[in-house]
Amino acid sequence: MSTIAQKKGFGAVLWDYLTTVDHKKIAHLYLIAGGLFFIMGGIEAVLIRIQLAVPNNDFVSAGAFNEIITMHGTTMIFLAAMPLLFAFMNAVMPLQIGARDVAFPFVNALGFWLFFFGGLFLNLSWFLGGAPDAGWTSYASLSLHSKGHGIDFYVLGLQIAGLGTLIGGINFLVTIINMRAPGMTYMRMPLFTWTTFVASAMILFAFPPLTVGLTLMMFDRLFGANFFDVTMGGNTIIWEHLFWVFGHPEVYILILPAFGIFSEIFSTFSRKRLFGYSSMVFATVLIGFLGFMVWAHHMFTTGLGPVANAIFAVATMAIGVPTGIKIFNWLFTMWGGSVKFTTPMYYAFAFIPSFVMGGVTGVMVATAAADYQYHDTYFVVAHFHYVIVGGVVLALLAGTHYWWPKMFGTMLNETLGKITFWLFFIGFHLTFFIQHFLGLWGMPRRVFTFLPGQGLDAGNLISSVGAAFMSAGVMILLINIVVTQVKNVKVGNDPWGDGRTLEWAIASPPPYYNFKQLPLVRGLDAYWLEKMEGKKGMTPAEPIGDIHMPNSSFIPFMITLGLFIAAFGAMYHVNDKPWAIPLLIFGLAVTFGSMLVRSFKDDHGYHIHKEELTQDEKGAKA
Amino acid sequence: MQAEEKLTYETWPAAPERATLEAKNKFLGFWLFLGGETVLFSSLFATYLALKDKVPDTSQPLAKDLFELPLTLVATMLLLTSSLTSVYAMYHMKNFAFKKMMLWLGVTVLLGLGFLGLEVYEFNMYVHEGHKFTSSAFGSAFYSLVGFHGAHVTFGLGWILALMIRNYKRGLNLYNAPKFYVASLYWHFIDVVWVFIFTVVYLMGMVG
């Protein structure tokens, strides 16, 4: 496909991506958009660390600092980590189960555009009167009184983006249940597919409470409702519950796919079957289940009472058990394996001690009585950065190196990759390790500055230096990407040489129909199994025949554009602008009108004929 | 089986809503979506229960002052009956009886409209008694929960009508059969939610 893309002009390529329903191209879109938001969130992080590098600093004002920390957290969770994971899920999961596309290609495109426009809306706040400033948790008692439109941008932007995530989750679930290749039983699915499956199920049940919470906040701020206003009978704790009923599962929605990425990498580069595969699956499902039982551990100091605190504390600690199972399985996968230290393996290796540290402090903050000391200090900041950066971000960087050849057909430079790793890894521990102690020494979270002579100076400076290292690492990665794509040295099906799962059995990047013939899966690590028996590729499960493909469509873009316009109408309605309500109605009309067009216009897709497929092969050989 | 195939009564499959891969995906995907909707309404129910009768001062009406059981009972009966008529419609869909299916879908839409009319009348009545969306947390929670349901009913009516208009001339095939089926699933779901609203909001509201 890429050779065809090169012949096309820029406009044609742009139109292709605006209308694409191909999961591989949508993966590119998620990777690019998520990567841009990751850089924005990273710049915000650097601004935070510059402000806190020395005491009494006035690099940014207190108000701007609040906006920066809010946008850093919100951007990194919703607009960077989730979409980047979705990029890999889209790029790899359908290939791993031997499918030609996801179950709902149209919905897949719609999900991307909803995320993208939601993120765009949120970030436009910087230019339209100020960003949200009540923290990424946006507790109602604070956010209801926030001046300007910052919180409105947060509420409406996340509402749009969250809708995209929800339908993306449903799409992945149906794909995995209905579209597996012949012989791909549940217990032969690669771990990344399993974690995608469980994370998608969690998305399905975790995002609706967020939708409701954001809706109530929108009603309160924009339409005069009183859900959180105590003087009118409201209750501000409802927001905390709704937010964390979503928010805690969200953490596992992020970390489970990360576990999946590392599971693939450990077994590939140990050149050994994943140790305890079935216990890994069991642990994944158990974490997914327990993830819904622990939300109130974020609210120990809210005053729910000792009984509730005790129950949630015990449930939280229970999650340590399946997580421990996973850690030992990864260690035993490497044990006795023939380990090859590639860049992805560096990340996987470093992930284990880093994540275990985050897990240990997790058990510490789960102890309800002790949490009264840790709550709202830098100790908590250190804890969640150890699990999110030490777990999710390391997995994203590892996955980028690991699957880059499959997504783009080129191999990232290994030397630059290892430099990126060392800079990022050292920078990460330098930044966040000391924050545990800053917290224990009494530095509260979310303060914009601190006084000299309180024993916090050196620790904060060290932390800021670490941020510089991480930034340098990300820059080297960007250089690596540019250099690799300019050189454009194409690689074969299995560039690592040790691929075990189905995605390595087809070309890099795969043809737009993925598999010419659906593969017959004979066991776990289907491709490895065939290789070990001396075969070159998979045994086909069907004769060459016509392949049914979905049509491209511009409607997903239009549906989203309508919501984007409507959000402005809803927001400026409080300023008594005469055009606000008409704009809201117009936007919704565009959305529902586009849906109606989609419903009325039959879309049967098209067929690639047998003859074209065989010609393709001849052309490739010539 | 292909979605484009022309079928007759004899060749019509037993489960047309799951006969093609697209249909199977749609069927499963919609059930999963309803799972998410269940959590959505659960959150709204929880919010309502937490804020029931939470008003700023004693001049505001409470649940026991507002609700009138005869009115909501009629509304409930209309909606429950519409669920039954949509079952009839799907029965005829499975028997490839397009005209009968359209007839029963038409009855379903009329009953749904009746329900919606009663809801508008009811809301109007409450507003005149001082129970407004903006007047108290109770009001906000009540109109959000019941209004979300009402919005679902409205969307469902628009959806069924759109399907009826689009397919009026061409009859049943394996492309539109799952669409009708999924719309009727949605309609059942709305009905189930109403059963809970009737219990939690109205019946529990009457006893204080």
Automatic annotation (TrEMBL), chain A:
Summarize the protein's role.
Cytochrome c oxidase is the component of the respiratory chain that catalyzes the reduction of oxygen to water. Subunits 1-3 form the functional core of the enzyme complex. CO I is the catalytic subunit of the enzyme. Electrons originating in cytochrome c are transferred via the copper A center of subunit 2 and heme A of subunit 1 to the bimetallic center formed by heme A3 and copper B.
Q: According to its UniProt record, in which pathway does this protein act?
A: Energy metabolism; oxidative phosphorylation
Coarse class of the primary localization is membrane
**Known EC number(s)?**
7.1.1.9
UniProt catalytic activity: 4 Fe(II)-[cytochrome c] + O2 + 8 H(+)(in) = 4 Fe(III)-[cytochrome c] + 2 H2O + 4 H(+)(out)
Q: Which organism is it from?
A: Neobacillus paridis
| Descriptive protein name | Cytochrome c oxidase subunit 1
Instruction: Give the protein family.
Output: Belongs to the heme-copper respiratory oxidase family.
Matching entries from PANTHER family are given as: CYTOCHROME C OXIDASE SUBUNIT 1 (PTHR10422:SF44)
Judging by the UniProt lineage, the source's domain of life is: Bacteria
TrEMBL record, chain B:
TM helices/strands, residue ranges = 28-51, 71-91, 103-121, 141-165, 185-205
Pfam families assigned to the protein according to its UniProt record, in alphabetical order: COX3
Q: Which residues form the Heme-copper oxidase subunit III family profile domain?
A: 1-206
Keyword Cytoplasm among UniProt keywords: no
Keyword set includes Transmembrane helix: yes
Membrane topology classification: Multi-pass membrane protein
Coarse class of the protein's main subcellular location: membrane
Keywords tagged on the record: Cell membrane, Membrane, Transmembrane, Transmembrane helix
Provide the protein's localization. Answer: Cell membrane
Q: Which PANTHER family match?
A: CYTOCHROME C OXIDASE SUBUNIT 3, CYTOCHROME C OXIDASE SUBUNIT III
**What's the protein here called?**
Cytochrome (Ubi)quinol oxidase subunit III
The record lists the organism as Neobacillus paridis
Phylogenetic lineage: Bacteria, Bacillati, Bacillota, Bacilli, Bacillales
